[in-house]
């Protein structure tokens, strides 16, 4: 056994466990086991029933508000298990501070995270808060609404309907983000040569409407990844990277990014791929697998998402990643998704429709994985290759975009889908 983000061991009962109680209540249900050393050795707790009473009193006296929790005793080992449930009344404080888990440690949250916990406890999204700026104009948004929604003018009533303006309070942050001018970081786009040290073009767009970010990114994409050829009496357009995938990736970055982080969404364009990195990880309550499979749609910025939906920039909530993957169904190289606590990176490779560049051994593994996701162990059985060789090949194919890695640890599998 070892400690994880949702499991902590305590050799004895000291006040340090209360930081973890705060963290679990704030961010996700977890367990603390008393009577186990850091290395997993079980030593038990003397008088466990009295100890349970002490634990309960410490939580009730020091955690504010008091979260839901339960205590269980293993009579065979005298190990006490404290389960703390994720709470709805965030933030949960211990000694005036709120905590979160970082790997297997509990650390204080920063100012941004504390504000997010307050919003969550009040069931608010960041884009629904009232903006500090109220001197806003909406020329860009109005033109888009006229074109797509068929309106004659962007009235105050429509701004209220779109939740960009709130009666008696003013414009929301969503309103400011869609205004002609705003106070937010935007999009930093760069086209690179043979390495990241060679800049061929740089375009930073900020303090303007999200619609301008979207349109400018699309313009730069079209300049370098689309071309036309005359075939007979017709002009045919070709895409090195699917426009559908790029549109979805940019819309996803703008709708789901954390706008309370003062950083740009980065778009890096290379000859063989595009990288799009948006600040902020996944919204709370949404796991990586759920995000990739579109099982659950949780919008970090629901007001912005609704406007993008009405303007037909996104089709339906939660389908963007699936549409990106669908755009590459006939390509050997597949998009990649790198998700961390602080950012989401989407890598869109240039479409590759043949595997001629792969070695014989790489083709063998690639062809096996076309029909079913397999672990490295199963690939060893199917190919006759050694474990080291299989891992070297699959890691290379994942890095180059031919395969996708799923799961972690012993449950890791590889697939071309």
Structural class: alpha+beta
| Number of separate helices | 14
Strand content: 15-25%
Helix content: 25-40%
Under the CATH scheme, which class of the largest domain?
Answer: Alpha Beta
Overall pLDDT confidence: 91
User: What summary fits the major beta sheet?
Assistant: 6 strands, mixed
Strand order of the largest sheet: 12-11-15-16-18-17
Q: What is the C-alpha radius of gyration, as a whole number of Å?
A: 26 Å
Poorly predicted runs of 5 or more residues: none
Number of strands: 20
Number of domains: 3
The third-level CATH topology of the largest domain is Heat Shock Protein 90
Describe this structure in words.
- The protein has about 425 residues and is an alpha+beta fold.
- It folds into three domains: about 120 residues, 2-Layer Sandwich (Methyltransferase, Cobalt-precorrin-4 Transmethylase, Domain 2), CATH 3.30.950.30; about 160 residues, Heat Shock Protein 90; about 55 residues, Winged helix-like DNA-binding domain superfamily/Winged helix DNA-binding domain (Arc Repressor Mutant, subunit A), CATH 1.10.10.10.
- Helix content is about 35%, strand content about 20%.
- The strands form six sheets. A six-stranded mixed beta sheet has the order 12-11-15-16-18-17, covered by helices on one side. Strands 1-2-5-4 form a four-stranded mixed beta sheet. A four-stranded antiparallel beta sheet has the order 3-6-7-8.
- Helix 1 links the parallel strand 1 and strand 2.
- Helix 7 runs antiparallel to helix 8, helix 8 packs antiparallel against helix 11 and helix 12 packs across helix 14.
- The longest helix has 16 residues.
